[in-house]
Specification:
The complex is a heterodimer of chains A (about 350) and B (about 90). Chain A is of the alpha/beta class and about 350 residues long. Chain A is built from 14 helices and 9 strands. The chains are: A alpha/beta (about 350), B alpha+beta (about 90). Bound molecules: iron/sulfur cluster (2 copies). One iron/sulfur cluster (SF4) binds next to loops of chain A.
Chain lengths: ~350, ~90
Amino acid sequence: MTMPAPPMGLIAELTHRCPLQCAYCSNPLRMDAPKSELSTDDWKHVLDQAARIGILQVHFSGGEPMARRDLPELIAHAAGAGLYTNVITSGVLLSDAAMDGLMAAGVDHVQLSFQDVDPQKADHDGGYRGGHARKLEAARRIRDSGLPLTANFVIHKRNIARVAAMIALGEALGAERMEIAHTQYYGWALLNRDALLPSREQLDFATAVVEAARARLKGRIAIDYVVPDYHAARPKACMGGWGNRFINISPSGKALPCHAAETLPGFTFPSVKEASLAEIWLGSDAFNRFRGTGWMPETCRSCDRREIDWGGCRCQALALAGDAAQTDPACHRAPDHHRIEEAVAKAAASEALELVPRRMQ
Amino acid sequence: MGAVSDVPAFRRGVKFRFDSVRDSWVLLAPEKLFMPDDIAVEILKLVDGERAIKAIVDDLATRFDAPRGEIEADVIATLDDLSARGAIQL
Ligand code: SF4
Ligand code: SF4
């Protein structure tokens, strides 16, 4: 095997704490307790190593990264090490003072997520009264400070009918980029799948709206559109390939090839408290296990897309096919593809289901 | 389509810098990054929010041994592509 190229991005999940309770959250059902979180110094050490091994961008996420008081300090540290800094936030904690703190730290970009365009529905689905209004304020603060804004909408069958209004809101807020992302079914979202997964018709409707908006806004607002695996003929290249582009660090310091990887049995994920990032990237079993194409089942190994989608998502293979080393059932060539079709049919048959809100146990 | 009179600039939140680990130039943008090829690197080095496309083409034409029309087509295609992907504004 050739030496893996340096990683591009670090996803720093600073905490699993979050004031919101989105039922589509992809955080694991068993979240890291606040007292297990890495310290400020631990994170600084991680950021220094990240820059040294070639990471270019750091994405501060969570949970809600702004729930950590040391976020500005960590941003400043990352910027000092030459890293491009991105904050992925729900925005409800983004007060004037917090915005000043991010700016003083030298943040490069903020991604702000919305639950819906209808304030009542948004607050209901986020489980946070007044949250939507706060997000609108946060968007204004981000723009007033001169930063670029990405408005992110996670869509599912409860809000998909309003996708055109979401794009209009992004435009009105002066977003530079938008993400219209279909829910990815991990963690809490997988638990709530029947209440969230849209039908084929709903998906086609949303896709048509996004395509039209893209053409209209070309060169002004870039719209990234993430389709749900369940309706795609081919799986996504999860994380751009296992151990290929990203390192995800959990709040307690586990280094993961993808944020859902902790669901995989038979793995010991290395901790940044015990090993260096370079050792983890190059030498750990966890990062090497599904790296490249050598681990692949015959279905993928004989397929000319094997270095395009890397066999899809390992966590989805486990969740749906019962074996992480199988072809992702989202692929139409996968032996277990029928499970995807069954899940779609099941979700279509379950109309008004209540959601299980994301909560710490 | 970019015109020769357009003045390209990096959009907010976009950084073009040299990465010493990879020994190459990288274009860092909100939740995206690009590894520009050698031609794009030469073009992007001249993007400063003041020079128009015409001036960029003039500059490259003095240094590279290629017909001006070809250089102009390359510059416009590269910048158009990066504009559609949200990294450059024209
Ligand atoms: S998806 Fe919702 S609950 Fe999960 S981290 Fe984001 S804002 Fe919090
Ligand atoms: S068979 Fe494997 S490599 Fe080919 S498209 Fe399906 S998941 Fe991708």
